[in-house]
Amino acid sequence: MIERTASPRLGCGLPDRLLAVRAAEGDEDAFAVLVQRHSRSLLTLARCMLGNPQDAEEAVQDAFVSAWRHLPEYRHRAEFRTWMYRITVNRCQTMCRRRPPPLPLDTVAEPAASDAWSQPVRTAEQDAATAALSRALAELDAGQRVCWIMREVQGLPYKEIAHVTRTGEQTVRGRLFRARRSLQEAMGPWR
After folding, report:
1. Going by C-beta distance under 8 Å and a sequence separation of 6 or more, which residues neighbour residue 35?
2. CB 92, CB 50: distance < 8 Å
3. Whole-structure pTM value
4. pLDDT per position as a tens digit, 96-151
């Protein structure tokens, strides 16, 4: 991830819009504040989309590099956060398209059994439920998955999700409805 701490002289209380203007003028400290402010939520989004922390870090880092390069072209039609979500979603979708197809389960060796006494039952159940949710999310179509992650994990409003995905609010609502229904069916045994 981009490791840089903002200068103490640069107020972290400044709005994104002002920081983006300063960054577009070459102020690296202003951009560092933006990175610091938004990297956690973007990492969460990318991790949910890609299912792999290393790929998520790569996607977010690439998104910030792209944003840095294109800041002079950023016209503030959307909030900086929304602009970064769009860049990150696009990068994640590109990475998903370039991935090789998954191997069938019967070709993957089963991991060695660990000591059953070292893991409490509750932890095993939570891990299994989390794995089931990850599989169910992976089975959603990309549009549904992105909308669900941005709404349910990130808590973004419908309008912002529509802007990020370049669709209408009704499309977002429809995708969320279908995603929730699919996930509810897939997670039925875990209720």
Report:
1. 2, 4, 64
2. yes
3. 0.66
4. 887 765 555 555 555 555 555 456 667 777 777 777 787 888 888 889 988 998 89
CA distances from 22 to 94, 145, 177 (A): 29, 34, 40
Which amino acid does the sequence have at 53?
A: P
Query: Residues 45, 91: contact at Cβ < 8 Å?
Result: no
Measured between alpha carbons, how far is 67 from 50 in angstroms, rounded to an integer?
A: 20
93: its two tokens: 């979708």
SS3 readout for 117-183: HHCCHHHHHHHHHHHHHHHHHHHCCHHHHHHHHHHHHCCCCHHHHHHHHCCCHHHHHHHHHHHHHHH
Give the separation between CA 161 and CA 148, rounded to whole angstroms: 10
Q: How far apart are CA 137 and CA 148, in angstroms?
A: 9
What gap in Å lies between CA 54 and CA 65, rounded to an integer? 16
Residue 46: which of 9, 112, 92 has the closest Cα?
92
Query: What single-letter amino acid sits at 99?
Result: R
Residue type, 137: L
